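Dear V.,

Thank you for sending over the compound details. I've combined the ligand you provided, zinc ion, with the protein sequence from our construct and run the structure prediction for the complex. I'm sharing the raw inputs here so there's no ambiguity about protonation or stereochemistry in the SMILES, which I know was a concern on your side last time.
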Amino acid sequence: MARFSGKKNNGFEVGWQMVPVNGQKEVELLAGSGLTVVDGGAHLKIIELRETTRGGSRASTRKFTIKGLKKGKAVIWAKNRSKISAQVTIQVIPQRIVAIAFNYVSDSAGNKTKRSPKTANFLLRKLNNIYLPQANVNFQIVAARKLKINATLGKVVIRDLKKPSKDQFSVLIANRFPKAQVNVFFVWECQKAGKAHDTDGVAEIAVSRNEKTNCMVEDNLGASFERVVAHEVGHNLGLKDDYSIPDLLMYGQSGKIVGTRLRKSEIERIWAG
Ligand SMILES: [Zn+2]
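Below is the predicted structure of the protein with zinc ion bound, written out as structure tokens.
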């Protein structure tokens, strides 16, 4: 059976591939020798790579470069005469630039994060390594600053939605860097009110695409720092926890964030939200 295949963590899900406007992706057609490959419109251009031809006859795995020309959706078919043997939907999407601010928090009682603005560029690269190839999201730093809060936040910075007077996350949010769409606050410890202390981060979930959102991430993590930040920022882009598969970025078990993969539905959410 012929089928299209794409690279993992590169905006591919079975039968679907994200391609950036003015960018390109590679897909493979497995068991595709002898099939005629046709595209379905002006949104893209497909180019078959020459090295897939061996000894004058076509190899069964064929490689194609797909160039995104303009925003929209198109289907590529692999046909045996008029019969469709395989197909892949190509979603051509423009780049979304997200202005991000990294705030390294301390309070008036001497509590402070161990993290430093010096690592901001490294963190930015890690975020873009996850989001750019999969969702065509490009984070840009608009601030990487030490942020001294003129209050005592205590040993643990609490998110308490039920008692606004006790909610310390809102104290951080009041000090957000206004020009950034996403503000990340690095704190020593944080958790949601009433929960056992197993929280790596706390984030707001964006409801609309243009919403300004915030998250906080603590020093003591049970998982990779960059992935926790990427996960919380995912909430800030409107994504929810997903407990189904551990290789997902939004796999939601605290302390067990292991993956970096975004699903098609998540990429569409970020793009369209
Ligand atoms: Zn989460």
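A first observation: The chain has a mean pLDDT of 92.

Warm regards,
I. M.
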